[in-house]
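1st attempt posting a full record on here, be nice pls
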Amino acid sequence: CFYDAIGRYARQTLTPGGRLFFELNPLHAGELYRLLTAQGFEEVLVVLDMSGKKRFVRARQPQTTR
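the predicted structure (as tokens):
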């Protein structure tokens, strides 16, 4: 899936503490949360839109990359 590819690329290229943001279909929020957590991102957060739908996911590259 392209979320996996983007996450892997971001883990390799983001600076320590860098952030990754996605806008997504609310049906995929839980899956993306689990994927980014498994990839080693920290502070993974699902953010609601103005309608209360799970619309965004934010994650932070660890301060020290693994």
